[in-house]
Write a structure and sequence with these properties.
Blueprint (H helix, E strand, L loop, with lengths): L2 E3 L10 E3 H15 L4 E2 H11 L8 H14 L3 E6 L5 E6 L1 H10 L2 H4 L3 E2 L1
Antiparallel strand pairs: 1-2, 1-6, 3-5, 4-5
C-alpha cells in the first residue's frame, strides 16, 4: 500500500496517509468547494456525512490533514470571516481551480511524495 506524505503550510512535518484515503478526501474537498467558499465546520460536517462509507475512521482528522496539504500547495486558501463570529473559511485558489478544471484533479497527484 502506497502512502502519501502531506505538506504543512508552516513547514512542519506532515503525515503519511494511504493514497486511497488521500485521493478520496482531496476529491471531496475540491468538489465541495467548487466555485463557492465554505467554513471549515461546514466542510467537516458535510464530509462526515458523505465519506462515512469510504473512510473507516477519523474523517474529520483526514479532512484537516488534507486541507492543510492543499493549503501548503496553494490550491486552497484559508481566511477568517469575522461576521457573525470568527470562523475559518476556505475557498479554492482561482488560478489553481482553473487549472484543475482544465487538467482534472489528477494533475495535483503529480506533485505528491510517495513512500
Amino acid at each position: 500500500m502506497q502512502k502519501i506524505l502531506t505538506w504543512h503550510p508552516l513547514g512542519k512535518p506532515g503525515f503519511y496517509l494511504p493514497e486511497k484515503d488521500y485521493d478520496v478526501v482531496r476529491n471531496f474537498i475540491l468538489s465541495a468547494l467548487g466555485s463557492t467558499q465554505m467554513s471549515l465546520v461546514e466542510l467537516i460536517a458535510l464530509g462526515e456525512r458523505q465519506l462515512a462509507g469510504q473512510i473507516k475512521d477519523k474523517i474529520g482528522w483526514h479532512i484537516l490533514v488534507v486541507k492543510l496539504d492543499l493549503e501548503a500547495r496553494g490550491i486552497v486558501v484559508s481566511f477568517l470571516k469575522p461576521v457573525p463570529f470568527r470562523s475559518q473559511c476556505l475557498k479554492l485558489n482561482r488560478r489553481i481551480a482553473r487549472q484543475i478544471l482544465l487538467n482534472g484533479a489528477g494533475s495535483i497527484a503529480n506533485q505528491q511524495s510517495v513512500k
